[in-house]
Amino acid sequence: MTVSDLARRSLHLKLYPNPTTFAHRREVLRIISNYGEVSMFRSLKYHPISPTGNAFAVIFDTQASAQAALDASPVRYRIISDQFSSSNSTVMDGNKIQEFALHISPTSFSHEKFLTSRFTNPLHGPFFPVHPHNSLIGSSLMQYIKSNSLGGPGLLDWDTDRGRGIARVRNVRYMKTPATMIIE
Questions:
Q1: Which CATH superfamily, name and number, covers 3-116?
Q2: In the chain, which residues fall in CATH 3.30.70.330?
Q3: Environment class of residue 119 by beta-carbon count within 10 Å: exposed (0-12), middle (13-18) or buried (19+)?
Q4: Exposed end of the chain (fewer CB within 10 Å): N or C?
Q5: What does the alpha-carbon distance between residue 114 and residue 60 come to, in Å, rounded to a whole number?
């Protein structure tokens, strides 16, 4: 699979009005599954850099499925519910009906950059140590671990900087926890 093949199978979806429940987001997956097998479906509501409540990223198994979904845009559908209340809903026979419009477009989303960026995927790439003076964990370790104990050097080397810079904090007796970090 090449990057260009992945790009041709990837689509960006926008749903209007904004989905307010999990059932609304699940319905988007059900609707686009009618066009072909979906390999990946991701809501961009919790995207680490630019969260968008009504956007989704989709990868289809085949380019033909992606093209079929793209050709069908915009897809309009209704959700019927007895417990739903919204300004866009209409009442019909005791049930509330809400209409949605799903706009489908090609995406410029780079999956490789998303997976290899330390901003969007904190588990990828090398760990960048934080100096204990600027770290709540590092300063807490300084209070409770004695550097001359048997396990001290190893325990104080939690951030892989091999102990360089820890001496600066060792001389500090007590570092106050920031008020924003205190749990009451």
A1: RRM (RNA recognition motif) domain (3.30.70.330)
A2: 3-116
A3: exposed
A4: C
A5: 18
**C-alpha to C-alpha distance for 40 and 144, rounded to whole angstroms:** 46
Classify residue 46 by its DSSP letter: G
Max Cα separation, the chain? 78
HSE-up of residue 54 (Cα within 13 Å, Cβ side): 12
Length of the chain: 184
Contact criterion met (CB below 8 Å) for 36 and 63 = no
Three-state DSSP class for 2? coil
Convert the pLDDT of each residue in 39-53 to its tens digit: 888 888 887 777 888
C-alpha 169/C-alpha 178 separation (Å) is 16
Strands 75-81 and 89-92 turn out to be unpaired
Segment 79-118, tens digit of pLDDT: 877 654 555 555 555 568 888 888 988 887 777 777 777 6
- In terms of pTM, does the model score above 0.85? no
Phi, psi of 161 (to 5 degrees): -95, 15
**C-beta neighbour count of 144 within 10 angstroms:** 7
Sign for the pseudo-dihedral over CA of 73, 47, 9, 24: negative
Q: From CA 54, how far away is CA 48, in angstroms rounded?
A: 15
Tens of pLDDT, residue by residue over 61-80, are 899 988 898 888 888 888 87
